[in-house]
Design goal:
Number of domains of chain B: 1
Structural class of chain B: mainly alpha
CATH superfamily of the largest domain in chain A: Thiolase/Chalcone synthase
Strand content of chain B: under 5%
Radius of gyration of chain B: 12 Å
Helix content of chain A: 25-40%
Oligomer: heterodimer
Structural class of chain A: alpha/beta
Order of helices and strands of chain B: HHHH
Largest interface: A-B, 11 and 12 residues
Number of helices of chain B: 4
Largest sheet of chain A: 11 strands, mixed
Chain lengths: 408, 92
């Protein structure tokens, strides 16, 4: 493994805050939650979510191809197209064997499995679509993106719960550092806005029960937080060896300077209360980047708004930054938790934060939890001079991955 | 001939090919070979699902025409394909 610098040359985002990275970042800076009652979750014990607004896949992908994809794959394909376009790349101009793809997702396609199994249970197995298997695989986004973009290098799919998006980016960086690729299209996508997913998450008591005020439901670090709000989305970055980017005249948006991953080995869903695994992942990422805590100017927190998760992350941050953590923001307050996509979405937001030198605010922070000693940006965006930032992902099962981004 | 099972099946086929597979109906004639539609094996099975016919892609060659397929689907010659139910509740 060499120390090859990894540039972020393209960003693609589809989130409840908007279609496209520009709309998303602008809406993030408004600091208003996008959560609302979701007709697709009618009948579920918790029926609120954050949905990508006006996402019309057939118009973007075509009816024929849309039908072959579940929504989490449709989101990935459109986000990947934006990222590649943003990077100024044309599929006819790259060496396809030198381009890789890495995608993460957590639940993949609970919806298709439920619908198609329903046909069987209804005595109509003849109605099971032949597209169902390929639609529902965790590798489906990877398949469609490589088909769509003509990528012929390594392709890898990850499913490590809510760390999958960040792990995909980390693995993408390693493919570049190892010399296996010149370019990697990497990210995550998820559509948890399905009855099976909402029902199963609620059985864990992970979801906020604020049905009556959905826009106030996702409140990371707030004293009255009571759980996460599910959200859908996709985040994709074009990662490229810095020398390769420079050779073609591309201007990097940021550098992916390092990454670190650890495992809690603590519990199926509960985080280590002290956040030791999270802290170790942050330290590993800093070491990998050749930086120290004092170099970090901002933290894009995992902060799902669960009582235990936010407290554990806050404790880890306080130990990492004993003199006070740099300004922190919690995007899930605005766009909900997109599980396997979240890390990639939030890393994309971190890239944009560094590029714009502007930290989007955390929504619904009315009263900081007295047990949490952090400078959480809220109310309005904060313009700060920043050189480096962390993007945290701490998943169910204790899978932790942290990325370090620096300005280009 | 108009209103015969084969003609009705052909009309349904054209409708499904356009609505699901984005193949313009006016580009499909009785003589159009399957190969020209560009459907892969999964899409052929999906086409059968939408037509409420159990299709085995191996029953067709690249040169099989839409008219021949419609004939088989309509049971005109009573060979490989048989309708498994009406298509009244078909959802495209």
């Amino acid at each position: 493994m060499t120390s090859t610098a990894v540039a972020v040359t393209g960003v693609g985002l589809l989130t409840p805050a908007g279609i496209g990275s520009r709309d998303t970042f602008d809406a993030m800076c408004s600091g208003r939650s996008t959560a609302e009652v979701d007709p697709d979750l009618k009948g579920a014990s918790v029926d609120i979510s954050c949905a990508v607004p006006d996402f019309r896949a057939p118009e973007l992908i075509g009816r024929r191809r849309t039908h072959r994809m579940d929504r989490f794959t449709q989101l990935a394909v459109v986000a990947a197209r934006e990222a590649v376009d943003d990077a100024g790349l044309s599929t006819g101009e790259w060496l396809p064997e030198r381009v890789g793809a890495v995608f993460g997702t957590a639940t993949s396609s609970m919806e298709t499995l439920a619908v198609e199994t329903g046909h069987y249970l209804d005595g109509r197995p003849d109605r099971i679509s032949p597209m169902s298997l390929t639609r529902s695989l965790p590798s489906a986004p990877l398949t469609e993106v490589t088909l769509d973009l003509g990528i012929r290098g390594p392709s890898l799919a990850l499913s490590t719960a809510c760390a999958a998006g960040n792990q995909a980016l980390a693995l993408g960086a390693d493919l570049l550092r190892s010399g296996a690729c010149d370019i990697v299209v990497a990210g995550g996508s998820e559509n948890p806005r399905t009855l099976p997913c909402a029902l199963l998450l609620d059985k864990l008591r992970a979801l906020s029960r604020r049905h009556d005020l959905p826009e106030c439901a996702s409140r990371p670090f707030d004293a009255d937080r009571d759980g996460l709000v599910i959200g859908e989305g996709a985040g994709v970055l074009v990662l490229e060896r810095l020398d390769h980017a420079r050779a073609r005249g591309a201007a990097p948006r940021a550098l992916l300077a390092g990454h670190g991953s650890t495992s809690d080995a603590h519990h199926y869903v509960a985080p280590d209360p002290e956040g030791h695994g999270a802290e170790a992942a942050m330290r590993a990422a800093l070491t990998n980047a050749g930086l120290g805590p004092a170099d970090i100017d901002h933290v894009n927190a995992h902060a799902t708004a669960t009582p235990a998760g936010d407290l554990a992350e806050a404790r880890a941050l306080r130990r990492l930054f004993p003199d006070g953590a740099p300004p922190v923001t919690a995007p899930k307050s605005v766009i909900g938790h997109s599980l396997g996509a979240a890390g990639a979405v939030e890393s994309a937001l971190t890239v944009l934060t560094l590029q714009h030198q502007r930290i989007p605010p955390t929504a619904n922070l009315d009263m900081l939890d007295p047990a949490i000693d952090l400078d959480v940006v809220h109310g309005r965006p904060r313009d700060v001079r920043m050189r480096a930032a962390l993007s945290n992902s701490f998943a169910f099962g204790g899978h932790n991955t942290v990325l370090v981004f620096t300005t280009a | 001939m108009q209103g015969s099972p084969v003609v009705r099946t052909f009309a349904d086929l054209r409708e499904v090919l356009e609505s699901r597979f984005e193949i313009p109906a006016d580009s499909v004639t009785l003589e159009t070979p399957l190969e020209k539609l560009g459907l892969d094996s999964l899409e052929l099975v999906e086409l059968g699902l939408l037509m409420e016919i159990d299709i085995d892609p191996n029953d067709f060659s690249a040169g099989t025409t839409i008219g021949e397929m419609a004939g088989l689907m309509a049971g005109a010659d009573g060979t490989t394909l048989t309708a498994t139910s009406t298509k009244a509740d078909r959802t495209a």
